[in-house]
Every structure is written in C-alpha cells, then in structure tokens.
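[User] I have long wanted to understand how a fold can be written as tokens. Those tokens are not coordinates but codes from a learned vocabulary of shapes. Could you go through the record with me and say what the backbone is doing? Thank you; the sequence and its tokens follow:
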Amino acid sequence: MQMPGERLLERMWETITEKGIGRLLKPWQMRRESRATIDIQREEILILAQAQHDAERIRRGEVRLADTSAMRLVAPSDEDLSIAPEVYDRLALPMCAMESMIADMVRREVNTARAVLQAEAVLEEDPQVPPDQNVDEDWLFRWRDSASQVSNDLLQSLWGRVLAGEVKSPGSFSLRTLDFLKNLTQKEAEKIARLSRFIVINTIFRGAEKILEDEGIDIEFLLKMQELGIISGVDSVGLITQLKSMRESDFFCVMRSNSIVLLIKHNDPQKVFTLPTYHVTSMGKEIFRLGVFEPHIEYLEEVGKHIKSQGFTVEIASYYRVDNDRISPYNNRVI
C-alpha cells in the first residue's frame, strides 16, 4: 500500500538525482524501501550534522585531511612544525587551499541535503498525483546553487518548501523569486511570516490599523515590505479592492485567509462590496505560499464587519480542502 505522498516523493528523487543534486542522501534514499522512513531520516540528519562539523573543523585548521581519497582526518602533528618554514609554506599552501575548498564543498552539499529533507517532509503526506510537466533544468540548478549557501534552519525550510512546491506544480516559483529568497535574511523572513497572518485573497485590509499596529505592523513595517517587493499601495491614497459575486443566481463570494474563510452572501447577484486594501505583488503571492500560518481571527472579524456594514451577510468558518479547486467550510458562525 502506497503512502499518501509516495508518488510525489518518487518524482522529487527522480528529478534531483538525475541532475546529481542531493548526492549525500542517495545511499539513504536507496534504503528507504527496506527500512522505516523515520529511522532513515534520523540517520540522515545525524550524518549531515557530522559532515558539517568535520567541515568546520577543517576550515578552522583544527584537523587536516590525511587522505583526500578517503576523507580521513588527523590532527596537525609536531612533524609539520619541524619542517623549514620556506619548505613548509610551499607544501602547506596548496594543501590548505585544497582543504578549504573541500570544506566549502561539504558545507554546500550538507546545506542542499538539508533543504531536500525539508522538501521531503512537505511532500510525504501530500496525496496529489505528480504533474505531467517536469521541473525546468535551469530552475533546478539555480535552486541548488541558492539553497547550498544557506545554513540557517528557517531559511533551509523555505528552500525545501520551494522545491516541494515546484515538484508539485512546475512553474510555481519564478527565477526572480529564487533570487529574492537567496538574498533574504532571517529577520526579513520572520517579518514576512508575521505579515502573512493578515493576507486575505492577496490583499491586506487597511481598516484594522489598531490590530495591525498591536502586532507590530505599522506604516514603517509596511513600507519595508513594499521596498522588498512583497506588497504595493502603501504610499497610495484610496486604493480599493472591489469584489463581485462568484455565481449568477445570487451573491456569493469566498475570501480565504490561511485556514479560515469568510463567506459573503446577498440576494442580489449584481451587488458588489469594496475594501480599502494594500495589494500583494506577484512575487509576494509566490512567497506567501511557502508557509502555513495561524489566522488572526479578530482581524478577520473586522474584515467581515466592514463587509457586513455594506448590507451583506457574512459568515466566518474553518475549512478543509476537497481538491485543488474546492474547499468545504465547517463550524460556520455569522458575524
């Protein structure tokens, strides 16, 4: 019996191993069929941690490579110090350069492997059928080069989610977005995550300033997000989002925000409502897809009250996804 995400995982491993990506994980990936996945993952994490530790010791000069073919480490000996300085320099400099290069290569491979493990964790419970389209080769190498530079756990998680999302739907993340993530700091990533709680159908409602400010999202914060290219309209006056009915028989509109949905209803299918908003940019839409965030209920209730004041019936509910195009609300509550 197949696990929920087995087909997507197979596609991911086919995609990356074909291009020589994630080579440190290949031996464990081949053993997955005969051993419990959780045991394999634990072993992978331990081996990667040891490889990173060894690379750091080489870089700091605490150990040297005794045998480059076997990657055997030894501590520097007194014999090294007994060599005449001018001879030692000629011998040591090429060796130091090679050891530094190897340490850097190991670091890059470890970082890439950790991002791959993050992608695996995202895909392993996803029952989606793999798409017919394959991940673009240039995109994949750009992803590898970028992910290999990141040692921070939070940022590695982002790179893992990017790979998982691209395997599920090739073309989901542009090369421009990869370049953006490559230069993203942990502090900036944390700020973007904070803002993500307030995204409703790719907008941010401007009518709940008090709630936003209480969460540290003031005008300076929003201008910084605009400067990063995540949102737009912060320095504009009167930016309005207008929404129409999704069906012809009566007015019905769905507004999703993380795991919560607002259901807007009215008897007149021609009626529209408006919201003062900031807009999420095209790149911002890709970035905000990378996380799973807690909704801000009080904020969403304020959005609902603003719509209700225009004559609509508004319900707030949780939902689960039926498929890629449909959701099913539950625990509905009228605002």
